Amino acid sequence: APAGPSGAIVTELRCVCLNPTHRIRPQMIRHLEMVPAGPGCPNVEIIAIMKKGNKVCLDPEAHVVKKIIQKFLNSSGKQKN
Amino acid sequence: APAGPSGAIVTELRCVCLNPTHRIRPQMIRHLEMVPAGPGCPNVEIIAIMKKGNKVCLDPEAHVVKKIIQKFLNSSGKQKN
User: What is the dihedral of CA B69, B50, B48, B21, to 10 degrees?
Assistant: First the structure.
């Protein structure tokens, strides 16, 4: 039988985050980007855009990262205009 | 006493989202941006960048929006590389 891929479509993995961390100072985060798992990358990716402009990949499975996201979600000043 | 602002520093509100919605098709979202409440805007803001390129503001307090975020967080393909 012929060697090599049997017509399998190899989608080039385009994961952005290679070494996600859970070490971050939440108050230094300007905003978070959340990219769901998809054809390009099998993992959800969470990217923190810092106030200094750099980007930090966060580990979506780390408890502290989930807490940061929860805190952001509940951070509204409850001022309904 | 002199009328007018008593030296209060009026920070110009820079909220991006004016009419957030909860009506969205999650599978059409490319990624989410989450901007925590802060000096510029007293509300957390959640912006969905759609696959077609447009941006949609989501209501952070809507149950369905919180479910979408939860689903994204748990969407990893569980493939640890």
Answer: -100
